[in-house]
Specification:
The chain is α+β, with helices and mostly antiparallel strands and about 400 residues long. It folds into 2 domains: about 5-55, no CATH class; about 140-405, no CATH class. It has 7 helices and 26 strands. The strands form 5 sheets. Strands 6, 7, 8, 9, 17, 19, 20 and 21 form an 8-stranded antiparallel sheet that branches. A hairpin with a 2-residue loop joins strand 7 (about 160-165) and strand 8 (about 165-175). It is globular, with a radius of gyration of 23 Å. About 40% of the residues are buried.
């Protein structure tokens, strides 16, 4: 008899429970974005014939801000009723609710913890706006990428610069039709000379610069995906402590650092529990960009563009970090580009991207400060650009998860 499972999905996440006697046990969790849908699709392929019950918890709400004149009592009620009638002409179920600020913050805290409060106070308020492929709000690189799926990029010429033995940096140009449209800030680090650590701060108050100061790091990038509470959405090890979900389906990649070895794993055919066993610091992420049949394991929409971040390993065992300055790359384009680039990569995995994609370096007088800005997604066939509701502030986003390099 097929095992019975319950799929509980909301607008943000999909939770998969397995029946265990008279209780439900969380088996896996998938985010509601393209990588999460891709992971869920892969999971279903491995569970053909399974029996699933589905519970949907989706809000049918609409929010609009209205400027109401300063009136009271019956006059105010009349103004509100008239505004509702103008916006919702054919529905009886309409209501206007005024929430005190304290109640709003209490509700936000209950839903997201301190992370949500800090996001509201520190970051720009972001909204998804519908755009067209040639919209002027997109960067030139993004408009070029959306012109046609066959648009391909080639690596430009670059040279590694050694800051000190075991630590090199470079800027890799991204060339399309003879012109540079994007670039990737690279760092190459030898594990025998530097140490790698993974940290999580659910409150989400630290930018890349804050993390560098707090950890005494020479390099920091953002890590894998996180939940609305700022906690890891994928399995993670920090200073020997296991964080994130205990039940998780992983078939892409993991970064694993132990005392005597550092490796970027291809998890195809490997249980992530085994890959992370004995790790001092580690994290699972997706999708795999370079590895066995990596291109066949990427199922995201080619129009999903964002600032990208990745971590990989070359044939000499060195760890390579890369962060794009623009948002030309979809995941499949990035995978093809890295395979063709003269980086000698044997494995590479994608890290969280978009505005949170950050890289900072401070070593021997060299300084680098790269912050993300762009994310374009596809919802119901429409292009949606993540944009600030008000005038943006020129600052990096806070990062709940950091992957850092420190001196041994």
């Amino acid at each position: 008899m097929a095992a019975r499972r319950l799929l509980y999905f909301t607008a943000e996440d999909h939770y998969l429970f397995r029946r265990a006697g008279r209780t439900l046990e969380l088996e896996a969790k998938f985010s509601g974005d393209e990588p999460g849908v891709s992971g869920f699709r892969d999971y279903l392929r491995g569970h053909r014939g399974g029996l699933f019950a589905v519970v949907a918890d989706l809000a049918g709400e609409d929010f609009h801000e209205e400027q109401v004149p300063y009136v009271r009592g019956a006059d105010r009620d009349a103004v509100v009723a008239r505004r509702l009638a103008q916006r919702y002409r054919d529905t009886r179920l309409a209501a206007a609710i005024l929430l005190p600020v304290a109640t709003l913050f209490a509700g936000l805290y209950a839903y997201t913890g301190t992370f949500g409060i800090n996001v509201l106070l520190k970051r720009d308020m972001m909204v998804w706006r519908t755009v067209t492929p040639d919209d002027s709000r997109l960067s030139p690189a993004m408009r070029l990428a959306l012109r046609d799926r066959s648009v391909n990029a080639t690596p430009g010429a670059f040279t590694w610069r050694t800051l000190e033995p075991g630590f090199d940096v470079a800027e890799l140009p991204v060339i399309v039709e003879g012109a540079e449209v994007d670039s990737i800030s690279l760092a190459r680090v030898a594990p025998d000379r530097f140490r790698f650590i993974v940290r999580n701060q659910p409150a989400g108050t630290r930018t890349v610069d804050d993390w560098m100061g707090a950890l005494g790091a020479v390099l920091v990038v953002n890590g894998s995906y996180f939940s609305r509470q700022g906690t890891p959405d994928t399995p993670l090890v920090s200073a020997g402590t296991r964080l994130g979900p205990h039940h998780y389906i992983a078939n892409h990649g993991a970064f694993v650092a132990a005392r005597n070895a550092v490796r970027v794993h291809d998890l195809a055919g490997t249980d992530w529990h085994i890959a992370l066993q004995g790790a001092d610091d580690a994290m699972v992420s997706f999708p795999l960009l370079v590895g066995t049949n990596a291109a066949d394991r990427i199922h995201a929409d080619w129009r999903w563009l964002a600032n990208r971040n990745f971590v990989g390993q070359d044939s000499a065992g060195r760890i390579i970090f890369g962060t794009t300055k623009d948002a030309f790359f979809s995941l499949d384009r990035l995978a093809a580009f890295l395979k063709a680039a003269p980086l000698d990569l044997t494995t590479a995995i994608n890290l969280d991207g978009g505005p949170v994609a950050s890289q900072g370096i401070a070593l021997d007088g060299f300084s680098r400060h790269t912050c993300g800005k762009w994310e374009l997604n596809v919802r119901d066939g429409a292009l949606k650009l993540l944009t600030p509701l008000l005038r943006p502030r020129a600052r990096c986003w806070e990062m709940p998860i950091a992957l850092a390099v420190v001196r041994r």
